[in-house]
Each structure stands twice: as structure tokens, then as C-alpha cells.
TrEMBL record, chain A:
The electron transfer flavoprotein serves as a specific electron acceptor for other dehydrogenases. It transfers the electrons to the main respiratory chain via ETF-ubiquinone oxidoreductase (ETF dehydrogenase). It comes from Anoxybacillus andreesenii. Its cofactor is AMP. This is Electron transfer flavoprotein subunit beta. Heterodimer of an alpha and a beta subunit. Belongs to the ETF beta-subunit/FixA family. PROSITE patterns: ETF_BETA. Residues 21-211 form the Electron transfer flavoprotein alpha/beta-subunit N-terminal domain. The lineage of its organism: Bacteria, Bacillati, Bacillota, Bacilli, Bacillales.
TrEMBL record, chain B:
Belongs to the ETF alpha-subunit/FixB family. It comes from the Bacteria. It comes from Anoxybacillus andreesenii. The keyword Transmembrane helix does not apply. Pfam families: ETF (PF01012), ETF_alpha (PF00766). Residues 5-195 form the Electron transfer flavoprotein alpha/beta-subunit N-terminal domain. This is Electron transfer flavoprotein alpha subunit. PANTHER family: ELECTRON TRANSFER FLAVOPROTEIN ALPHA, ELECTRON TRANSFER FLAVOPROTEIN SUBUNIT ALPHA, MITOCHONDRIAL. SUPFAM superfamilies: Adenine nucleotide alpha hydrolases-like, DHS-like NAD/FAD-binding domain. The keyword Protein biosynthesis does not apply. Keywords: Electron transport, FAD, Flavoprotein, Transport.
Length: 257, 325
């Protein structure tokens, strides 16, 4: 089984966000594998262990993403590919990323492609389905279970809390939802082995793409932080009075009930 | 610049979802005086066309086929592409729902167009349609425009105001026949887990419980409060991990994102990953016995106390309010 994982490097979930020069300030921030992509890496490893084959983790980004790719290798992936767009692209959107990934994947004969259902930074959730569409293969998003039998696939998909049981077939792209699995921590031997595993670096040129082919179709014109909320009011006094006051505040001041 | 804008009416349990009316509101802004065309896909959905019109659509195109009874990305894409082909719209708006998130990137890719997902605000500024959307789980916002092709966006439930329903409005309802074929994903079964009644992501009031709720039964008083307020029950991951409730209720970075008018957090400490799913709520109330809990830093109103005492009292007080109203 030829398995590919689409992975993004994102801010750690604990990070505070600040802005400098109109951009999100990355200085000193901790970065991680996008949490949903971590489920994808884990699932890919489990599928490989059950069915044989190879797991390749692909990331579009800059050099810094090598660290997260190494982590994926340490978890158990076999190969990693970084498509480094730092020198070529000043601005990209989901159209750009999907186009690059699809161009990379088109001749790889992937049986299964797994991504996270959304990246916690940009939060758009577009790349997975876009890549599937460009490759002309079916996809299922937000999956919580994956069963493969020959080329038949049964997946359970989370739909706003309900579950759909879906039958489809390989080649297939799926995106991971929380609940799919428990991602493993890289073991010490895993980390040692990862250092020797192949991590290739490509640029747009290597994919016969130039900037114009992948030019973004949308543009960010401003980034800002939410307005500081006025300090909240912690009520005081007898509990019964607090409850009465709260109801009255919600009704008369906030007017939400 | 007047534009023709398509809006997908999303049907759930035989009626239109609220977010579809909000999408019409959004489409009106994008249309800048142009036409808003509702689209309905399903096995038998034309009876809902008038609802779209009364909420502001100028007319409605219906595609009916047995194969559209349940949503599949292949089936819906075929239906919509046929409509897009005949209507040639300059804008498309979906709700940022499970369906909208699944379908919109496929369609955008087919149309070779951009897509702005999870929009919480729309304005016309400097000759552009400017979309506002949260990034970094609501820790920041960005304003975005489409620079090439169709203006395609999905709108987050509860953020864009729908128009007032106008029962006197009329408009054309036409049907388009499309051959739906070659579905590559087949839905075998749907397991209902989400609580009956109010949909969490669309609820105007959410009563959420955390590890402080202590057990499955501990959620009962929260359910009662939610009932009285016509709201939905949500939870922190702490509560889900402890198996007090189903993961379908989880709110936060790895759960649902909600922006109700009123969010009542009961026994939730306010971890940053939880805040990611609810901090953009209009009004936040925290009930926690620990005065130092982080949730008080984002709350508009807080009560320091035992939730098992406070929540039932609140329910009673709200009942009185409803009776007097
Ligand atoms: C990658 C990642 C993703 C995550 N995603 C999410 C997510 O999507 N959603 C999420 O919620 N969390 C998420 N978490 C977990 C998050 O970090 C917290 O662990 C979790 O939110 C804690 O849940 P809690 O507030 O219910 O529990 P706790 O932190 O244990 O807080 C319980 C609170 O209840 C109060 N309490 C106890 N008894 C009472 C009582 N009788 N009356 C009133 N108050 C009482 C306590 O004072 C305390 O403040 C994520 C973590 C990681 C690392």
C-alpha cells in the first residue's frame, strides 16, 4: 500500500498570538505538527503495519518544517518530502497549496492519502478535498474510523456529532477527525532511526511549476487581534442574589435572553 | 457592481437550516443589488423554495433526484455544477457546516476558483467584497478578498444576520433536471448521536459542562437549564475524556466552534484549547468554584460557586423570567 500523508507545521495550541508589521509574529513561538495531521500520520502508520507498504509524509512550507517531518519519521513514517516554497512564493492560499500537492502526487500512484481535516492556524479545511478533486479520486472528510479490505474501504465519518458509515474504494483521500486514533509519541529508537530516513527537499521548479501556475486566488489584506474584552464582572453577595442579578443582567443589560 | 449570487439551501430533517437564511443575508451583501438565487438539492425539496424566497432569495432553482436524498460530495457537486453552468453566477455562498466544509473545496477546485471559508463578517469596502474570518482558532482575525474568479465563501453559523422573513415575497421556482451518476462514496448508515433538538453549532444559547460536572448524571441540571433557554448542551474535552458525555458535544480547538449569543460555562477551567471553540461568543457566563479559574478572564459575568447549587437556581430564575415575559 502506497500511503501519503499531507502535513502542515502549525503554531502550538498553547501559543499566544501577537502581531508585528501586520503579520502574525512567529518569533520565539513553539511549532508542532498540526494536531489533526498527527492523527493522519498515526493512521497511515497503522494502515501500513496492517497491510504493508510505505508511508511518505509531505509538507508544503519552508525549511523549518523539517523538524515536524522528522517527528513524523520518528513516529514511524518511512519517508518525508518537503516542498519548499520559501524562495518562490510571497503569498499563497489553499488553491496554491493544493495545486502544488496535486502536482507532486499526480504520478505517485498513491493508494491512500491522509490529511488532517483542518489546520488550526488558517482553519479553512480546503486542502484535502481540493487535492482529491485535482487528482480525480474520491474523498471522505472528518473520518473517525478507517477499515480497508483489498480495495474496498469502509469509513466512519463524523457529521456534526452524528456518524455516517460510508463505503468507497481505493485510491482514496481521507481527512482525520479527533477520535480516529491516539497518536503515538516518538520513541527514542524511533528518533534515532528518523535521522537516517530520507527527507527530500523539492522546489516548484522540480515539479515543473512556476509562480504563475499556483498564484493565489484570494488575498489577505489585514490581520488583527480581537478587541480586548472589557474585564468581566464576578458577582458578589448571597448566592440567591447573585443568581437573580445574573438573570437580570442577561435580560436587561446584555439582552441575550 | 451588481452580481448574481447563488446560495445553497441546506436541508436537515425536512427543513432548511438557519445558516442558509444567514447565507442569503451574506449573499445580499455580495450581490450589491444583483440577484440572489437559491439552490435546493434533494429527493423532494421544492416545498422549501418559498422559505428561501421569504428570507430574501429572488428566485430558486431546484434539482431533484433520488440520488440526492442524502448528501454525497459527488452527487451534490454534479447538481450544483449543472446549476452553475446554467446560471453563470459571480458569487456563491454556503453555510460553513459539515456539508459546506466538505463540498465547497471540491467545487472551488472544479471551478478553478478561490474560496474563503468560515466567514464571520462581510462588508463592501474600497470596491471590494471584504470577508472577515477568524484564524488561529479565534486568537486573531483576517480580512480577505477574492482576487480572481468567482466570489465563493462559506459563512459560519450564527454570525451573519439573516433578513426578516417577509411572507409577501414571491419569486420564480424552476427545476433543472440533472443526471446524477457514478457516486463513488455510498452512505450505508447514519448513526444519530447528536442530541435531539437544538443543533449545537447553530444554538443561540449553549450551556457547557466540564470536568467539574463530575458524572454523566451531573449533566442533567445543565440539560434542564439549556431546555428552559431553548439552547443546546456542550462540553469541554475534560468532560468528554472522562466519559461524562459524548465527544459530539466537545467544544474547542479539536471540537466544535460555537458563537452563540450566550455561552454558560459550568465547571470548565478555561484552557486555551477550550477557549478556541467559544471565545467569540457574544456573552460568556462562567460558573466555577475556583475564583482563579482562567474562564473568568474571558467571562462577561461570573459566579464563583458550586455549579450543582448555582445551575438549578438559574434554571428556576429563568423559568420565572419566561413566565413573566
Ligand atoms: C492538542 C490539544 C487539543 C485540545 N482540544 C481541546 C478542545 O477542543 N476542547 C477542550 O475543551 N479541551 C481541549 N484540550 C484539553 C484542554 O487543554 C483541557 O485539558 C480541558 O479543556 C480541560 O477541561 P475542563 O475545563 O473541563 O477540566 P479541568 O481543567 O479539570 O477544569 C475543571 C474545572 O471545574 C471546576 N469545578 C470542579 N467542581 C466544580 C463544582 N462543583 N462547581 C463549579 N466548578 C467546579 C474546577 O474549579 C475547574 O476549574 C486540548 C488539549 C490539547 C493538548
Amino acid at each position: 500500500m502506497n500511503i501519503y500523508v499531507l502535513m502542515k507545521r502549525t503554531f502550538d495550541t498553547e501559543e499566544k498570538i501577537t502581531i508585528s508589521g501586520g503579520q502574525i509574529n512567529e518569533d520565539g513561538a513553539e511549532f508542532i505538527i498540526n494536531p489533526y495531521d498527527e492523527y493522519a500520520v498515526e493512521e497511515a502508520i497503522q494502515v501500513r503495519d496492517a497491510h504493508g507498504g510505505e508511508v511518505t509524509v509531505v509538507s508544503v512550507g519552508n525549511e523549518e518544517a523539517e523538524k515536524q517531518l522528522r517527528t513524523a519519521l520518528a513516529m514511524g513514517a518511512d519517508k518525508a518530502v518537503l516542498i519548499n516554497t520559501e524562495d518562490d512564493l510571497d503569498y499563497s492560499d489553499q488553491y496554491t497549496t493544493a495545486k502544488i500537492l496535486a502536482e507532486f502526487l499526480k504520478d505517485k500512484e498513491a493508494d491512500l492519502i491522509i490529511g488532517g481535516n483542518v489546520a488550526i492556524d488558517g482553519g479553512s479545511g480546503q486542502v484535502g478535498p481540493r487535492v482529491a478533486e485535482l487528482l480525480g479520486i474520491p474523498y471522505v472528510t472528518t473520518i473517525t474510523k478507517l477499515e480497508i479490505n483489498g480495495s474496498d474501504v469502509k469509513v466512519v465519518r463524523d457529521v456534526e456529532g452524528d456518524s455516517e458509515v460510508i463505503e468507497t474504494s481505493l485510491p482514496l483521500l481521507v481527512t482525520a477527525q479527533q477520535g480516529l486514533n491516539e497518536p503515538r509519541y516518538p520513541s527514542l529508537p524511533g528518533i534515532m532511526k528518523a535521522k537516517k530516513k530520507p527527507l527530500d527537499e523539492l522546489e516548484l521548479d522540480d515539479l515543473d511549476l512556476d509562480e504563475d501556475d499556483v498564484e493565489a486566488k484570494t488575498k489577505t489584506i489585514e490581520i488583527y487581534l480581537p478587541a480586548q474584552k472589557a474585564a468581566g464582572r464576578v458577582l458578589e453577595g448571597e448566592l440567591t442574589d447573585q443568581v437573580k442579578e445574573l438573570v437580570s443582567l442577561l435580560h436587561n443589560e446584555a439582552k441575550v435572553v | 457592481m451588481a452580481r448574481k449570487v447563488l446560495v445553497l439551501g441546506e436541508v436537515r430533517d425536512g427543513s432548511l437550516r438557519n445558516v442558509s437564511y444567514e447565507a442569503i443575508g451574506a449573499a445580499k451583501t455580495v450581490a450589491e443589488g444583483g440577484e440572489v438565487v437559491g439552490v435546493l438539492l434533494g429527493a423532494s425539496v421544492s416545498n422549501l423554495a418559498n422559505d428561501l424566497i421569504q428570507y430574501g432569495a429572488d428566485r430558486v432553482v431546484v434539482v431533484e433526484d433520488e440520488k440526492l436524498e442524502q448528501y454525497t460530495s459527488d452527487g451534490y457537486a454534479q447538481g450544483l455544477l449543472a446549476v452553475i453552468d446554467s446560471e453563470q453566477p459571480e458569487g456563491i455562498i454556503f453555510g460553513h457546516t459539515s456539508l459546506g466544509k466538505d463540498l465547497s473545496p471540491k467545487l472551488a477546485s472544479k471551478l478553478d476558483s478561490g474560496l474563503i471559508s468560515d466567514v464571520t463578517g462581510i462588508e463592501v469596502a474600497g470596491g471590494n467584497i471584504v470577508f472577515t474570518r477568524p484564524i488561529y482558532s479565534g486568537k486573531a482575525f483576517e480580512k480577505k478578498i477574492v482576487t480572481d474568479g468567482i466570489i465563493f465563501a462559506t459563512v459560519r453559523p450564527n454570525n451573519i444576520a439573516p433578513l426578516e422573513k417577509d411572507e409577501s415575497r414571491t419569486g420564480d421556482v424552476t427545476s433543472l433536471s440533472v443526471e446524477i451518476k457514478d457516486l463513488r462514496t455510498i452512505i450505508k448508515e447514519v448513526v444519530r448521536k447528536a442530541t435531539e433538538g437544538v443543533d449545537l453549532s447553530e444554538a443561540k444559547v449553549v450551556v457547557a459542562g466540564g470536568r467539574g460536572v463530575k458524572s454523566e448524571e451531573g449533566f442533567e441540571p445543565l440539560k434542564e437549564l439549556a431546555n428552559v433557554l431553548g439552547g443546546a448542551v456542550g462540553a469541554s474535552r475534560g468532560a468528554c475524556d472522562a466519559e461524562y458525555c459524548d465527544y459530539s458535544l466537545q467544544i474547542g480547538q479539536t471540537g466544535k466552534v460555537v458563537t452563540p449569543d450566550l455561552y454558560i460555562a459550568c465547571g470548565i477551567s478555561g484552557a486555551i484549547q477550550h477557549l478556541a471553540g467559544m471565545s467569540n461568543s457574544k456573552v460568556i457566563v462562567a460558573i466555577n468554584k475556583d475564583p482563579e479559574a482562567n474562564i473568568f478572564n474571558v467571562a462577561d459575568y461570573g459566579i464563583v460557586g458550586d455549579l450543582f447549587e448555582v445551575v438549578p437556581m438559574l434554571t428556576e430564575e429563568f423559568k420565572k423570567l419566561k413566565v413573566n415575559a
